[in-house]
UniProtKB/TrEMBL annotation:
One of its GO terms (cellular component) is cytosol. NCBIfam families: 1-PFK. Belongs to the carbohydrate kinase PfkB family. Keywords: ATP-binding, Kinase, Nucleotide-binding, Transferase. It comes from Brachybacterium alimentarium. Gene3D superfamilies: 3.40.1190.20. GO terms for molecular function: ATP binding; phosphofructokinase activity. CDD domains: FruK_PfkB_like (cd01164). The keyword Transferase applies. PROSITE patterns: PFKB_KINASES_2. This is Phosphofructokinase. Residues 23-306 form the Carbohydrate kinase PfkB domain.
Amino acid sequence: MIITFTANPSLDRTVDLGGPLTPGGVHRIGADSTQPGGKGINVALGAHRAGLAVTAVLPAASGDPLLSLLEAEGLPHRTSPVAGAVRTNLTVLSTPQITTKLNEPGAQLTTAEVNALEALLSECVSPGDSVMLSGSLAPGLPADEYVRLVAAIRSQGAWVGVDTSDAPLTALAAALPAVAPDFLKPNAEELGQILGVDGNLLEQQAEDGDLDGVRDAALDLHQRGVGAVLVTLGAAGGLLATEGSAWYSSSPSGPMVSTVGAGDSATAGYLIARELGEDPARRLARALAYGTAAVGLPGTTIPRPDQVHVTADRVVRL
């Protein structure tokens, strides 16, 4: 079973202006859609569409609009009740191929709501499960929440991965190697947060063919106890550090419609590959293929397997 945990779920509304975004101007929306969102929910959708057994765990009030969207998707989920409404994240698509995101912080969780959410997650986890902790933390959750959850989940005999940023990510990095996830999925910016360097520079170096900085950072995290580190590098591709080595692949070619959800799709691709028993090169290839497919779809659309074309011929061992 794959279990995803989304501490701060969202309604992802995407509007397409069909032209440039002008600050202070008046714009007319050409297209408008709302989809279920939150990194863990996106990952769960990818795994579910691939036919894997999955449960999405999240906080939401009974009757929240997000739940009807999850039910329409047929996504198995468990919710912990909260008083506040699920936040709305707004993505504005404008030309030339610019994505602008406006994210609400989310409702404040009480201590009782936090405890209930943690108890629900623990109740859902069994030995041998794969648990993916994804996204930002809702207000009310401590910055070291993922450190605490990683330790708790591993004590239950489950595999655990994390995809987060900012204070929760730096707290997790500071806890290594005493508390280490089995999988970590930073992008270049998040890897820079761990290192205290400019992530844009790391991505630019990778685009220029200089992978030393990303490779060394990913291997360092691996050597500090993280089982596998998947670094997504946007147009520059991605790098996987695991089993004492590093693999790199450039990005497959494809159209660009929306980058929202691409990283989550890559995570879903990795989990799918892991469930299939694929080797590191194939896991990296499948992750990037899922991310590329997502970029070619509108809004926060997570691809189906028939929309994903996996080839490992781009993967090289560094």
